[in-house]
Amino acid sequence: EAQVTQNPRYLITVTGKKLTVTCSQNMNHEYMSWYRQDPGLGLRQIYYSMNVEVTDKGDVPEGYKVSRKEKRNFPLILESPSPNQTSLYFCASSSGALNTEAFFGQGTRLTVV
Amino acid sequence: AQSVSQHNHHVILSEAASLELGCNYSYGGTVNLFWYVQYPGQHLQLLLKYFSGDPLVKGIKGFEAEFIKSKFSFNLRKPSVQWSDTAEYFCAVRTGAGSYQLTFGKGTKLSVIP
User: Fold this and answer.
1) Which of A6, A72, A81, A87 has the least CB density, counted as fewest CB within 10 Å?
2) pLDDT by residue for chain B (114 residues), tens digit each?
3) Which residues from chain A sit within 8 angstroms of residue B99, using beta carbons?
4) B79 touches chain A (CB under 8 A)
């Protein structure tokens, strides 16, 4: 079954404690991206990757890092989380071309206290 | 950069009422258009998509959308809503320029009253 898998689904952490949210896809997609969803703001792109070892900033990259060492995985790293990063995070993947749809993970609800 | 505007933040309807949610985007070239739905506590699900061809697109659960190029619009419609349609709806656009980024509107929350 084609899917994008994120872990963990829920996470509560403290300010400053490094964390990683994993994302994996099984569709051999080249394009992967991370979004955060906040009430009234919709989904905003954090980072994206057009292929292995190719990553770039989206609209709200501050405070986040990503890596793309393998095609299937695209982890999101928060080196020093702060309360304003409390949000719902979604990973997405697609073939990266026009006329294709994106597939979304189940989401990770992060709370930073 | 492209942008997407959804006109209504919160829409409240009674069951069996007709629904139309507005979506406008700001890119003049080739676009892919999408509507996603997010039920309470769940992830995004694709309702329908437009790539090319017939501008009237039919999706799942009785939803449809019409692409009007001259108005840069892609409004979502449903003739008769049900309580189970209570959810948040997001319009999104992808263009052929640059990074193929999927840009979302801010969402419209739909509440259907039984």
Assistant:
1) A72
2) 678 999 889 999 999 999 999 999 998 788 899 999 999 888 899 999 999 999 999 999 999 999 999 999 999 999 999 999 999 999 999 886 666 788 999 999 999 999
3) 48, 50, 56
4) no
